[in-house]
User: Fold these one by one.
Assistant:
Number 1:
Amino acid sequence: MGCLLGACSASDGAVLRVRATLLPECAATGVTLVQLEALDDATPRPASFVEVRPDVGQDLPDLPAAAALFLARARSSDGEIRAHGLLARAGDEAIGALFPIDRVCGLSAESGGVNTFVPPLGAVVAGSLRQTLVAGGVTPDGVARADLLVLDGVRGEVFRLGMRRRRSSPAVAFVGERAIVAGGEADGTVWEDAEIVDLAPRPPAMTDALALSEPRSHATAVVLGGGGVLLVGGGRGTTLSRALEVIDPGLRTTTTLDLASLSRGRLDPVVLRLATGELVVAGGTDAAGAPVPDLELLSADARTSTRLDAAATTWITGYALPSGAALLVRGEPLAKQWQAALLRADGSLEALAPVDAGPSRPVLVAATDGAPFLWDGALRRYDPWAGRFVATTIASSASPLPLGQGALAFASPTGLTALRFDLRHRLASDETLGLGSTQHLVPDPLTVLSNRTGLVLPGRARVAVADTDYGTLHLRVAVGGFRELPAIELRTPLGVLVARIAEDGACRYPTAEGDALDVDRATDGSLTLRIGTAEARCAAPAGRVLVTLVAQGRDAVVRGFTLRR
């Protein structure tokens, strides 16, 4: 199913194992050499090239230690390029998939910044940082499929499983070591069950289906902060569902009890989980194919809903910003401009400057610092400080493939290019933030002031430190006479809250007098907090995190903020 292309030893003694998966439906033949182009984790710079012979270990003295992404070109013995792909670095491995260049095997863009490898004809894709699920779709003659592909990039494996039903347009989501495939339709029948995939065994296993409260096709699935999967929208024929339903794949239960209802049913809505845990439901169409014009805000537990009016055009794509706001783009087919808007952390909607429309349907794709790109045949960069999209010099007629490491790739039948890009500078070791300096922050659209007192965050404002992420870290915030300290949130690159440090948080500030709050994060994720001589400890999971400052019920003052690895 997969193939090990090389096991290579770097000059510093660290082993870099290069694994590229050949997909069953997209096999490339005659590959004898794989050329790797390392893309640095920084503003693009001249890349280095390394060639790896299949199944032969060799030293790689020129491989950049900080490289997180590799562009792979697989060649035959006569030098002809037979396949290409992107390999993302995970620890001491470089992993990914190879695609033949003589036909398009269906590279497609999915919002969320994860690997997606999409076969043709409408399969539904969900991805995590490690695995990708390709479910259902239709055959060339229009018959719904029961195929389910599980692509494991870490192990370099691809598995084909059979679902209990043939499913077109199901809802798909990952939850830890499980995935769900819910609803969908075949031969005019809309299904009212969900299948669970256990991803832990090798090969993965399908388990018995769970009954849903009603049939659903063209619904959207989103993972809640507590680990459940929320089904939003969809329906059967002209009957659209307003009910929300939560699937717990661990307990194997489903429920609609005490959940809010949508104000209007909609097919294929855009659903975003914000950094605050709240949910935005946007876009989609009604039973007649007309756009649903309003936005709905759901609480983090989906028990309450607030409706917002919006112009009667379809919201096409969205992106949850690190600040807690949502960036949304809408428009009509053949429109000359796309309309962009920010849904603020306080619930208000702010229109941004229109964007000249390109020839393709727009999609927002992630970048390393949380400020996404908009692609519609051209590529624009969203600048969170200016609140607008900025033109780039990058042009590609191919759809971008976003990767979890904050990279973009552009694939076509004849070539593959990739880039990494950071809008903001990294926060240097021991560099002080908060007195006239805001360049390292990703802002909430609410006003963030910088003056001689420090960085002032109005109530509920959020600013994320614009580095990629941290494993271990040391963080210091000046205290002095100020007790209006912000809460400090540590979240995974996918937005899952790892720890909240605050006077009322699970990790509480020590009660003591002192000039600074110091936070140290160990390799196991545990936190040590100090103010003066007082110390507090709290447990937190290991893994890389983003750092966000959050004003609570009143203005918060940030002084002397430093952050280092």
Number 2:
Amino acid sequence: MRIARRSAFVIMLSIVSLGMWAAEAAPDPAPAGAKREPVSVRLPAPAFAAMETINPEHIRWHVRFLSHDLLEGRGTGQRGGDIAAEYMATQFAEYGLKPAGDNGGYLQKVPLVGVTTMPQTTFALVSLRGEAANLKFLDEYVAYDQTQQAESDVDAEIIYVGYGIEAPEYNWDDYKGVDVRGKVLLMLVNEPPSDDVRFFKGKALTYYGRWTYKYEEAARKGAAGVILIHKEDMASYPWEVVRNSNSGEKSFLKLEGLALKVASWVQFDVAKKLAAACDLDLDKMMADARSPEFRPVNLGARLKAHMVSNVRHFESNNVVAMLPGSDRRLRDEAVMYTAHYDHLGIRPDMPGDNIYNGAADNATGCGILLELARAFSVAKERPARSVIFASVTAEEQGLLGSEYLGQHPPVPAGKIALDLNYDDVKPLGAPEEVEVSGAERTTFYPWVEATAKEFRLAIRPDARPEAGHYYRSDHFSLARVGIPAFSINEGMKFKGHDEAWGLAQDKEFVEKHYHQPSDEYHPEMDFVADGAMARFGFALGWEAASFVKLVGWQKGDEFEAARGKSSGQ
């Protein structure tokens, strides 16, 4: 739903008082253009005028081009992905934004290694009685060699480690001091279920539940491999998503430190058969894993794998531009907007339509990012802090581009006030809700609430907190280095429709189009939602760029320590 049109004068006088800001008070006078304490959703007239130029049809044009077959699914390190990056850079240049990449350009080179699991790979689960089950790639398992070697062999015991989590703050340790060096670890996705927000945040998934954490922790402990058990209700997506996301080349940042020879998933039924062949019951094993008293179980089985990989060293690019701030005391600080431009490319072995166009995921986010950049560029007044626009690569490969950006930001992480990310904003019409999951973890949340109220958008709680969406998009990479960050998206209620309609649209997309070739542009798409989310984000970014103090994390948040470290506190 578009913000109700009213004069800039009225907007300037409209104040929603929610008390004092949760961040540190600023006793000194505010620099020119910087805001003081009461929660306010005022925009100066030039900012409001620029925001009003945001046009959903501009976003449509970008989505149409970026998701065209000519871009071949925007694969990471592939021709179509490189074209998309150049397109983003060209648009930033057209808007007159300052290059913020490498060597005075818009592109920031990201060193990557592409690994393709070859048909010669063998993957056999050998039971307690010596019976070998040779699994079929993609249908029963997926696996990659994270050591970035052409060949690796694994012949190791399989140890079941429950959820594979070591979390001292929750008095939880699935390893219990067991030496797992050189072993293969069988584990569950997700984390111990709970309704207690003090225990793994209750129903909301923490990073401990993400597969990326499980691989990282196992590698830190010296394991040779990990086998994750895929169960749709626990992973929050079907096997087809796992298969399609791991069917071609997988990209990794250039290796530093320990890595797994086998990073794999298996179908639930495969794991169930393995457990039975070892005289165990997988359902009971899963139930046992819910107890803090759980101890690792040696199945007596082995994984015998011969990993054969095609290894390709290459570079992809983040695209980074900046609008310098207006205040001499604050312009070396910034607000950041992000959206990934990559998708899954082409799957050569697939008959018929084999181009993963990625219209919703994430040509929409790129279209919004570009329209935000254009709107900021035409404002006759600039915000106090600088504004960074970053279109990142390799999100679909594991948030790699944003991880690299977080490690090599154009402005030190401790000086970035906020990251607002856009990912998969479906063109479904006029929204009456907004989702900003994770915003409540920051000191900026009162302004998010006030701005949503001004835009007449209800804030929708995360519909599926158990899916861990906060840890599955690029804002998470920025949060890990301490930058307050969250994504902006529409909710489930749209003008002219009830909530059930929105939920049905979301369900259909996940089941039929998410990471499928059918995620394509169609002329009948209604980009009003994308325009509304762009305007909402414009207002938030301008606000954060104008505060006296930087935005922070709420006390006790898991990223608070990283913020202190990046800020030198």
Number 3:
Amino acid sequence: MTKFCRFLVGLVGCSLLFSGAAAAVDKAVIDKWIDEFQPSAISKEEQRKELEWFAKAAEPYKGKEIKSVAEGIKTHKWESKVLAKAFEEITGIKVTHDIIGEGELVDRVQRQIQTRRKLYDAYVNDADLIGTHLRLDSALNLSEYMKGEGKAVTNPYLDLDDFLNLEFGQDYDGNQLQLPDQQFANLYWFRYDWFSRPELKKAFKEKYGYELGVPLNWEAYEDIAEFFTGREIDGKKVYGHMDYGKRSPSLGWRFTDAWLSIAGVGDKGLPNGLPVDEWGIRVENKIPVGASVERGGAANGPAAVYALTKYVEWMKKYAPPYAASMTWSEAGPVPSRGVIAQRVFQYITWLSDDEFTNPSSPVTDENGKPLWRVAPTPHGKYWDEGMKVGYQDAGAWTIPKDTVSGDSRAMAWLWAQFCVSKSVCLKKFMVGNTPIRKSTVNSQYLAEREGDFGGLITFYKSKAEKLWTDTGPNVPHYPLLAEQWWKNIAPAVTGDVTPQQAMDNIAYSMDDLMGKMKLQKFSPVLNEKKTREYWLNQPGSPKPERPDQQPKTMAYEELIKMWK
């Protein structure tokens, strides 16, 4: 063999050696992350196939970088700290996943759309903005992308049918504009251990004439709130209600996250009422036509005023004195302190906090099992069978259409799919309690631990879960319209305006803004004004005054049977 031949053989040998080493490193990396992503709803072999697919699909983009952003809940912090590192090690793509406040996130989405200047390659943006995205044509149509330009970077194991609520991110025609990344419901939360105490059950029955149990309507919730407020239990003064009222964007979410729907403001229909939805906006043929009663909406009708009146009244009478000065994020963990008997409006994302799950917590037993439970939200007196029951938040992957393209678009889509992959979803649930997949909630792992979650898994496995929905596509411009809520509700909290005046201000400001909108699709066209009496005498929403109902409760055990 000549020196040159020996040289070639050496080169080939070295090449094989190095390629073998690279393959070994890749396998080691994937094996490392498979171990990290336990528990999983799929087998380790299935995880290996999926993670190997990500590594192979990402080869053209190795060494490149993208930026994404999400709000500051536990789930997204874990994505930023753990999943971004895993994605980089497996794919070679570096991701900076910023964590910021939700209000700021919405501002940045809006700024990128308006200025056409790229701030991020992808947003975990509430699916509540679906009405905005479909009307501005601002989000990448993922349904089209997966079939065409993005086919090579679409995970063959994505399994869209496995998602709990894909419809949250769809336009009127069923196109996927946003892909759910996490979701959490607003449920009724209560101290099951207190509600089960014989002496408390007896005292309640003697005072109110019916059984202490899960309230099915607001009348019963109010009685229970009154019963517990000021009572001393286990050496602590307790309260029958918890809420928040600080002037901030989160005060608006307190209402737009379906409080009016729970009161019964809108019409029947799922996922949102038609023709009037839970914002009180009337929509006809996909076109918003008004929010005020005078234009056929319901934002300032009797049901909406009732919703605001009860919110203010309950917070003043039955919540801790500090509640009115708190924001959403400050109030969420308060029930874990052991001084709250029930909460009508508990975002379940907070229930993943250590304060709700530690054996040392005042709301768990010595084994860390919850002394609390979650149950369906009680209805207001305007609620009718066939309406949505409550709100469900879905932070959803959104890739801006006009400012993200080519390699950046492909990498953003790979990253989004990685964060929602079956390989990671069960582990992500164990971190943040924000499930998006049926395979997660139906996994054997959670079936064996269903009692650890206070009814949460039972809820997500039930058919009732579909009755908790997001804002839906009828709100034409979420950032502009959402701002009107918190600014006008804050004066009602402080008593500077009446609930009727506050809701009038919200309804008329939404009408004014919608009347000026010139959107690319389904832009608002306001109805001509008619008298309130005309609209209140029409079938459906807006609804005329109704009398209070008889309070109703149900034993938790019976209610859970209905969920199961």
